[in-house]
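Board notes (copied after class):
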Amino acid sequence: MKKIQFTNPHRKKHFDFFRAMNHPHFNVTAQVDISKLATYIKNKKLPFSLTLVYFLSRTANEIPEFRWRIRGEDVVEHESVHPSYTVSTESADVFSFCTVPYTSDYDRFIRTATDIQQKMWEDPNLEDEEGRDDYLFLSALPWIRFTSMQHAMQEHPGDSVPRISWGKYYTSENRIWLPVSVQVHHALVDGRHTGAYYELLESKCASPGAWMT
């Protein structure tokens, strides 16, 4: 982890401007082409949801601004951020959080996630570890082909953990599309960085085998 120093005056002004707002977050939803990824998952008999968690997390980890967090008066950059995603439980009809240590090793990530997910199924948990902000919050809404999304979150003190969600995939024009929502703190992440996230995600989905290492 390292501290970020804004040496560019305009970048510092941009940070201060949005940080002072009562609602400093913005959300974008886009339809992502997952045709090749979906085919690859089906042919290899891979877990669909966990593979999506991997791809969404790996993409976020490769963009520095998605690893930035506000801590008091400082901004820090984590070496990696770890997905905390929603899973079903056996005890109620509401979700539990499942936090998995991030690794770019696909097979290891899936094995670890499968074990932890089973534990959350039996013993659900909604609490984050106190003092940690190296999360990446992910959630699924597989019943809805949504076109927008808004998450509940703490405004003060500012919560700067990105929220990434996916909905019900569908077929149109012989392609498979997945709605993906990205909600971020505007003082840290701008439209350029959000656009880079979608571009990188789509490039990974277009050649899935090259990234599942």
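Comment from the instructor: The CA atoms of residues 89 and 118 lie 9 Å apart. The two ends are 24 Å apart (CA to CA).
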